[in-house]
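Example 4.3 (complexes with small molecules)
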Amino acid sequence: MSETSPSPHHPITPSPFEIDPAPHGEVIVVVDGSALARAAAERFARVVEHSVSERGEAFVALSGGSTPKQMGAILAREPYRSRIPWDRVHIYWGDERWVPLGSPESNAGEAKRGFLDLVPIPLANVRAWDTGAETPGVAAAAYEALLRRDFSVAPRFLPRFDLVLLGMGDDGHTASLFPDTEALAERELLAVANFVPKMDTTRLTLTLPVLNAGREIIFLVGGPGKADTLEAVLAGEQTAAELPARLIQPAPPDGKLTWLIDEDAAASLPRRSP
Ligand code: 6PG
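Answer. The structure with 6-phosphogluconic acid bound is encoded below.
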């Protein structure tokens, strides 16, 4: 467990867990789901403030799923609503489902309804995947072009998000990089349509190169259902194709990976002998 000075916002419980953070970055264990959301909101704010002070803007890739929803609700309230320079923040999604924005399954739709529509962020700064396009492939190509335009990067270069927020499924997927799916092998494109056989559906996802280019990559993992998978991911068990979250490795020299997890998700991690 890396030593982390507890912040007033989310004191870090001294960890009884024996986790070698080296290959995985920093592992921070907080007591429960609401502490996880508070810690995530504070991290979001700090990364955005640092990026804006350094580069005048902050580019963030949000994850989907349920975990980040509580974080969003906190960001929509004081002090974060006033503290964060929303006009300098640019929001993207690491992945999206092939559903309309109005669907409760929509990552962008849920984030807009849960917090982005409640904070003073310019509409033009919120960059959802176009799930109204004629096909997922067309939507992915459009998102790739949008990324290259927004980050002004030429082919062969990678856009660097200041913050990449990721969740992890109990099968080890992250973003919409599911085990044994084609997108895991993509090393050229930034954004692809990825057919997921076990769900019989096509998802939209950023690819490993652009996710790993993130300056700060933060996994938010909570709940008992993730405990065994998290242990397998951090212990380096199974192949990375079986546990795609293991493929998230920030780029040296300044890429940083943090696992923000709650006690329930940490339950299967090896514990230090007393
Ligand atoms: C999605 C996500 C996905 C999510 C994990 C964890 O579109 O569902 O991007 O990768 O982060 O499935 O989801 P929960 O937070 O709901 O457990």
